[in-house]
Every structure is written in structure tokens, then in C-alpha cells.
Amino acid sequence: MNILFYLHEFCYPLRGGDRIRIFHFLDKLRRSHSLYLVSLTQFGVEQESLEKLRPYFQDITIIENKKRIVLWKYLKSLLTGVPYKVIHYTSKKAEQAIRSVIQRYNIDVLVLDYFFTATESIR
Predict the structure, then answer these.
(1) What kind and span of H or E run contains 38?
(2) Distance between alpha carbon 68 and the CA centroid of its chain, in Å?
(3) Confidence band of 116 (pLDDT split at 50, 70, 90)
(4) Residues 4 and 39 sit within 8 Å (Cβ to Cβ)
(5) Is-contact 4 13, C-beta < 8 A?
(6) How many angstroms separate the CA atoms of 93 and 90, rounded?
(7) Contact at 8 Å (CB) between 63 and 37?
(8) What are the Cα distances from residue 49, in Å, to 60, 80, 122?
(9) 90 by DSSP, 3-state: which?
């Protein structure tokens, strides 16, 4: 089965319960499925971290939320009344990347690690 993960943050290095949980989940799934990743990041991803996860995924796409974009999202939340977390995890680039991976690799299942990633980015 082809499984696409859309993560609200890059899951390596392993610090914090969310990352550890996802990592162990991936470790089990990769044994019998093809895994793909689209991940948001606010602080970039170190090459070493990327290389640690390459064996787990057939394809990795990183979407960086740059600081100026984050500041704009705070303002947008204040002006629209939409909760900041919903706006923060909404990304046109991520939506395009998800659609592209789904089409390219005939994805069977999309896994969202965080509720807020599901609200607007995936339609």
C-alpha cells in the first residue's frame, strides 16, 4: 500500500512524544508499505536529519513556513477570527505538494498527524 504522511513538523531528531510516536509508527509501516512524506517545518531541516529519514520514505517534500509567513498568519488570524493553529497549518504549497504526490505515486492512504492539518489544507 502507498501511504502519504502529512506532518505538521519534521519528525527527526526524535525529541518529544509526537516525534517519537510517529517515528515508531513509520518504522513498523515501512516494512510492508511504501511511505511518502510531506512535512511542514518552521525552522528548516538539517541535512543529517533528512538523511536519517530517507530510508523510511520513497519521497520526501519539506514545506518551510518562513518567519515572515508566520507573522502574516498571526495577523490573518486576528483579522478573520479563524484560530491561529488552523491558519498556521494551512499551506497552499503543502496542498499542492500533497496533490502532486497523490497523483504521482497513486497514494492509497493519507495520514494526518495533527487535527489542524486536516481542517483547511486537505479539501
Answers:
(1) strand 34-41
(2) 19
(3) low
(4) no
(5) no
(6) 9
(7) no
(8) 12, 36, 26
(9) coil
3-class DSSP state for residue 75?
A: helix
| CA torsion through residues 26, 120, 104, 10, sign | negative
pLDDT of residue 71 exceeding 70, the answer is: yes
- The greatest distance separating any two alpha carbons of the chain, rounded to the nearest whole angstrom, comes to 46
Query: Contact 111/3 with Cβ under 8 angstroms?
Result: yes
Q: Collapse the DSSP code of 66 into the 3-class scheme (helix H, G, I; strand E, B; otherwise coil) and give the result.
A: coil
pTM of the model: 0.84
Determine contact, residues 35/29, Cβ cutoff 8 Å. yes
| Cα-to-chain-centroid distance, residue 46 | 16
